Amino acid sequence: MFNYYHPLTIRDVVNALEALRHVQRPYGDNEGDAINHPDVYADLPTHTQQAVDLAWRYVREYCCHIDGAINSRSVTLLKKHGYQIHLGPNQYDPMLIAGVITVGDWNLDLSDETAD
Q1: 22-60 tens-digit pLDDT
Q2: Which strands make up the sheet holding 97-103, listed edge to edge?
């Protein structure tokens, strides 16, 4: 049986992130909100929402090991490509990941969803 899994490369991640660079901020009081914040995300066109989802998934898959640990080499490589990224365990629940990456004027929240 063949394994068709193609591991993500830095180029895959950068391409997904760059698709977000020139997204226009929707009208409303959302200045400073991440592109995947519910108030912003809901007002984005479907194709842009898909680009946001892809970027989030790629960064998380690239920067996190399968066991949930942070891959510090991947984080460092993204920094070397000019991205501001902070990724680590959640302050209140170390089993969850918290973080953000900046692309142009946008932040992409990389945090796990929590049941508040």
Answers
A1: 999 888 888 889 999 999 999 999 999 999 999 999 999
A2: 84-89, 97-103, 106-109
Residues 6+ apart with CB under 8 A from 86: 99, 100, 101
Length in residues, the chain: 116
Closest CA to 81 of 33, 6, 7, 9: 9
* Beta bridge partner(s), residue 84: 102
CA 8 to chain centroid, in Å, comes to 14
Instruction: Name the β-bridge partners of 100.
Output: 86, 109
Mean pLDDT, the chain, integer: 91
C-alpha span between 38 and 69 (Å, rounded): 26
